[in-house]
Amino acid sequence: MLKVKPVAPERLPELLRRMPKAELHMHIEGSLEPELMFALAQRNGLTLPYPDVEALRSAYVFDNLQSFLDIYHAGTLVLRTEQDFYDMAHAYLQRSAADNVLHAEIFFDTQTHTGHGVSAEVVISGLHRACVDAGTELGISTGLILCFLRHLSEREAFECLEQVLPQRDLLLGIGLASSEMGHPPEKFARVFARARALGFRLVAHAGEEGPPAYIWSALDVLKVERIDHGVQAVQDASLMARLAHDRIPLTVCPLSNLKLRVVPTLAEHRLGQLLEAGIVATVNSDDPAYFGGYVNQNFTQTFAALGLTAQHAWQLARNSFEASFIDEAQKRQYLDQLQACFETFA
Ligand code: ADE
Ligand code: ZN
After folding, report:
1. Does the beta carbon of 27 sit less than 6 angstroms from any atom of ligand 1?
2. To test ligand 1's pocket by mutation, which of 27, 180, 228 has the most ligand atoms within 8 angstroms of CB?
3. Average pLDDT value over all residues in the chain
4. Average of per-residue pLDDT across 290-311
5. Whose Cα sits closest to atom 8 in ligand 1?
6. Of 50, 102, 104, 262, which residue has the fewest beta carbons closer than 10 angstroms?
7. Is 208 in the active site?
């Protein structure tokens, strides 16, 4: 393990901003900023139930995951055309490049949009075109991960999977999102088995609000390769040992956990404990337009609250590339860039 030279606390935010990183847990619909939401509403002849951007932003106060999901779904109503999905993803990728994100694995869902009369084909085509352009314009590599909505049925997840198969080659993986409590991973055992047989990489949200048992079943029933959130694992010592031993990454989202009241304050966040236990934890933004920050804000605010160090920064950035689904040669290149950043920073 690289022994990182100590960095003075006042210089740590600069290091966190500058270090190369991958983002592995963000929902593209959660990057739709109020300004773009109003612009898309106008372009599509729709009226938002808020007079202006400030009024909309001030509605972003949540009690829990469900109270957020209700507002989030209302925001997706402005997305109607391929160009809308392109513009949303293009904005996120530009914003992320400014945070020195070299690689982004982007969650999206089609069930929300097909429920509004927008086809899966429109959604995927717009997102994919933005990813291709980001590769050439910004040098960012990307992957698209389709999340099933777990509050809907297994049958609807199967239908969703069938709908996207014509564009299968544009997709990296399958995930599971939306209301966690009462919708355990095993509800989707058969559709995840089908996705696995089709060669998709698999991830699932588990242990955000839900119990450690949901993390166990995401691993053992769905056979996912990464757990999204997973912070409730701290309640179960044998699960912590399993995650560390099998090097199952957790894509942790500290500002999301704060805004959705999974933790009362950032100072009580367990990111440090997860790292101390040897778990491959990463830092991500989840829904940056709603939770008060993109990935670098998650890093700087969490490091300030927990008193984490440059050694932790290096570990988290390294974990982000290790936990990603990029090929080994590309991974090596990104890790070399990370090493060069830390060497020149000192
Ligand atoms: N969809 C968007 N953000 C989510 C989150 N934090 N948990 C579950 N589903 C989501
Ligand atoms: Zn999420």
Report:
1. yes
2. 27
3. 98
4. 98
5. 178
6. 50
7. yes
pLDDT at 236: 99
Residue 205 Cβ contacting ligand 1 at under 6 Å: yes
The active-site residue, picked from 23, 33, 82, 208, is: 208
Indicate whether residue 75 lines ligand 1 (CB < 6 A).
no
What is the rounded CA–CA span in Å between residue 262 and residue 130?
32
Query: Counting beta carbons within 10 angstroms of the beta carbon of residue 117, is it exposed (0 to 12), middle (13 to 18) or buried (19 or more)?
Result: exposed
Q: How far is the CA of 147 from the centre of ligand 2 (A)?
A: 10
Query: Is the C-beta atom of 202 inside 6 A of ligand 1?
Result: no
Instruction: Tell how far the Cα of 136 is from the centroid of ligand 1, in angstroms.
Output: 29
Question: Whole-angstrom Cα distance, residue 256 to residue 327?
Answer: 29
**Going by C-beta distance under 8 Å and a sequence separation of 6 or more, which residues neighbour residue 153?**
none
CA 332 to centroid of ligand 1, rounded, Å: 31
Write the burial class of residue 99 (CB in 10 Å: 0-12 exposed, 13-18 middle, 19+ buried).
Answer: buried
Tell me the per-residue pLDDT of 220-231, one tens digit each, with 9 for 90 and over. Answer: 999 999 999 999
Q: Cβ(226)–Cβ(24) under 8 Å? A: yes
Q: Is the CB of 177 under 6 A from ligand 1?
A: yes
CATH match for 12-345 among 3.10.129.10, 2.60.120.380, 3.20.20.140, 3.30.70.1350? 3.20.20.140
- Residues 44-56: b if buried by 16+ CB within 10 A, e if exposed: eeeebebeeeeeb
Q: What percent of the chain has pLDDT over 70?
A: 100
3-state secondary structure labels for all residues of 203-256: EEEECCCCCHHHHHHHHHCCCCCEEEECHHHHHCHHHHHHHHHCCCCEEECHHH
Name the pLDDT band for 2 (thresholds 50, 70, 90).
confident
> 265: pLDDT confidence band, cut at 50, 70 and 90?
very high
Report pLDDT for 1.
65
Identify the nearest ligand to the CA of 64 by its number.
1
